[in-house]
Each structure stands twice: as C-alpha cells, then as structure tokens.
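Lab manual, section 2.4: Encoding a predicted structure.

Procedure: take the sequence of the chain (146 residues), apply the prediction step described in section 2.3, and record the output as structure tokens. A sample record is shown.
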Amino acid sequence: MPEIKGKSKKKSNTYLFVYGTLRKGYPNINAQLLEKSALYVGHGYTYGKIFEVNNYPGLVLLPKCKDKVFGDVYEISYDCNNIINLTDEYEGVSNPPTPNDLYKRVCSKVYIDTFWIEAFTYVFSGETRGLKWIDSGDYLAYSGLI
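Recorded output:
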C-alpha cells in the first residue's frame, strides 16, 4: 500500500490513478487542481471495467479480467494528506469511510509502460446492473474529449 506522509518535500512514492473526471485535461477545477498539485507520471491502466454512473464513471477492479481501464497516474509528494483528503471529498468518500459511500479509495496495481506500481484509486461500490459498460475502458474517449 502506498505510504501517506505529511507535508514533505521528499518524494513519498504515493501514487494516484485517475480514470474519469480527474484525468489530465478534463475540464473541471478539481482535475486542474490535481494537475497543478501533483507530478504527472503518465498514462497507465488497471484491469477491470468502468461503467457510466451518472455523467461520471465508476470503476470495478477485476484483476483476473482481460479488460483494461485507462487513466492517468500522478505522484503526490508534497502536501499529500491534503491532496488525498480533497480527492476523497471530491469522490464522496467519507472520513472515516462508511458503507453508504458510492466510492471507496483502494490500493491497486497500475501498469505504466513495462512496469507496474501500487496506486490509490477510487472504485465504485454501487450496483452495476443496468449501468452502461464503457467497453473501450477509456472515459475521456467515451466522453469525446480525446
């Protein structure tokens, strides 16, 4: 699990994988804030499926699945707790988390080029029955933003 440290100028190797409305270039203030506050590492993917929930995606991790979910990886090394807390708030994750939260922050294996890292990501904890599966695995492409 990535280590979360307080305010530090040293790299803490805390990574965040975003696959939806927090992706680089997505037109909202929270994505722009993340882009300014963290180091963009690059594109990555994890195994699972994403669904259209309500004008935003929901990820279901399926490590043994062949379907990939594409997103962006950020390294958070400065003011890590504050950035994670703001991201939790944006994603609707309570502190402490509750069973009623629509998303949960978890640690997942994320692949970048020829290696993998462990990164925090937000998984959908609701029911997916009846939701549209985004079979491309890329929410930006699905949204027409790339």
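Check your result against the sample. Residues 80-91 form the longest helix (12 residues).
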